[in-house]
Specification:
The complex is a heterodimer. By secondary structure, chain A is an alpha+beta fold. Chain A has one domain. In chain A, 22% of the residues lie in helices and 29% in strands. In chain A, strands 1, 2, 3, 4, 5, 6, 7 and 8 form an 8-stranded antiparallel sheet that branches. Chain B is 47% helix and 16% strand. Chain B has 9 helices and 6 strands, in the order E-H-E-H-E-H-E-H-E-H-H-E-H-H-H. The longest helix of chain B is centred in the last third of the chain and has 15 residues. Chain B has a 6-stranded parallel sheet, with helices on both faces. Chain B folds into 2 domains: 135 residues, 3-Layer(aba) Sandwich (Rossmann fold); 46 residues, no CATH class. By secondary structure, chain B is an alpha/beta fold. The mean pLDDT of chain B is 94. The chains are: A alpha+beta, B alpha/beta. Chains A and B meet through helix 1, strand 1, strand 2, strand 4 and strand 5 of A and helix 2, helix 7 and helix 9 of B.
């Protein structure tokens, strides 16, 4: 998968979140974004807390009351970027019928069980259920979270 | 003179909000030697408005020659630098001919603090064009500080009931759980090399 260098990826996400706020899809975004870059090129990009807790003041807020947080880990060897892992956690309102949707890309281990624990998966409101989900670029996941999944549950 | 600190991202947001075809004005107050923001400006412009950045070194130009260059250039955004070499009369000449600044581009004047004062004193009409758009570019503040890193590590320790040493030990044995949180944990600790 072709992923931008970490600093470019960060800029792309920041601009994406700004656009989402500009168009009214979210109430905030840019100011809850942060990153940690290591000397070896590995980079963590976060929005919101590492562990979701209610109330989440540092999450991305939707007008509906839904909240989004995410964390993305990238590895950069000087020329190529690899997505090591990510988590996107969408907290839904009780009336939605689901407590949350979480999309994960787990660590790059070799011993995954594709039936019970595929590396790339979605939790449809239950921690123990891992539904296979294609690995995507961060902006593609955000597209689905912000423009497809959240509107579906809050319409 | 009032100016506020702003990261380049926010300055480019301002450019993005400018109605198409309308000339925009902005002054960046920074040392003449401070040029590191130019590459960041170029990258943000490329991403946010897909617009080109033109650079004009004005030190050896007269005000009229500068206006001629602006008229013939086709860049969406033009950054001008070197005004510290201008005499006061040059600023007056630029102000008198200010209508020729209306090129449809977004114009950025890069000046040091002392030159900013002279510029604004001798070009009061351009000063009104600038309005509140006088900024001191500051570094991006999005990097996690020690406190944020500490807070996030505390969240992880509490949630998983593990210490940093245990996480490092298990990572070294290739025995860490697969969840993305553990990769993040290692990055926060500066030990991501343990992720193979």
């Amino acid at each position: 998968m072709d992923v931008s260098a970490p600093h470019e990826c960060f800029r792309e996400i920041r601009f994406y979140l700004q656009r989402a706020t500009d168009t009214g899809r979210t109430r905030n975004g840019v100011h809850v974004l942060s990153r940690r870059e290591l000397e070896n090129g590995d980079t963590q990009i976060n929005a919101g807390p590492t562990i979701f807790r209610e109330p989440c003041e540092t999450c991305i807020q939707f007008p509906s009351g839904a909240q989004l947080s995410f964390g993305i880990t990238l590895r950069f060897d000087g020329s190529q970027t690899t997505l090591l892992a990510y988590r996107f956690y969408l907290h839904l309102l009780p009336a939605s019928g689901l407590r949350f949707i979480r999309i994960d890309l787990n660590s790059p281990k070799e011993d995954y069980d594709p039936l019970h624990l595929p590396r790339s998966h979605m939790h449809p409101g239950f921690e123990g259920i891992h539904i296979p989900f294609p690995a995507m670029r961060p902006l593609e996941i955000l597209d689905r979270m912000i423009h497809v999944i959240e509107p579906h549950f809050t319409a | 003179m009032k100016f506020r600190p702003a990261p380049i991202f926010e300055i480019v947001r301002l450019i993005d909000l400018q109605p198409p075809g309308e000339t925009g004005f902005c002054m960046l107050v920074a040392s003449s030697a401070a040029t590191e923001f130019v590459s960041e400006l170029r990258e943000e412009l490329d991403l946010q408005i897909a617009g080109s950045l033109g650079l004009i070194e004005v030190a050896e130009l007269t005000a009229i020659a500068l206006l001629d260059q602006l008229r013939t250039g086709g860049d969406a955004v033009v950054l001008m630098a070197g005004f510290d070499r201008w005499g006061d009369s040059q600023f007056v000449a630029l102000d008198v001919n200010r209508s020729r600044l209306d090129t449809g581009a977004f114009l950025i004047f890069h000046v040091d603090l002392k030159t900013a004062g002279r510029f604004l004193d001798h070009a009061p009409n351009i000063r009104s064009f600038l309005g509140p758009n006088i900024f001191a570019p500051v570094p991006d503040t999005s990097s996690m500080g020690p406190r944020e890193i500490s807070d996030r590590l505390n969240q992880l320790r509490t949630h998983y009931g593990m210490s940093d040493a245990e996480v490092i030990d298990r990572a070294a044995k290739n025995d860490l759980p697969a969840e993305p949180d553990f990769i993040e944990w290692l990055v926060l600790l500066g030990r991501s090399e343990l992720v193979l």
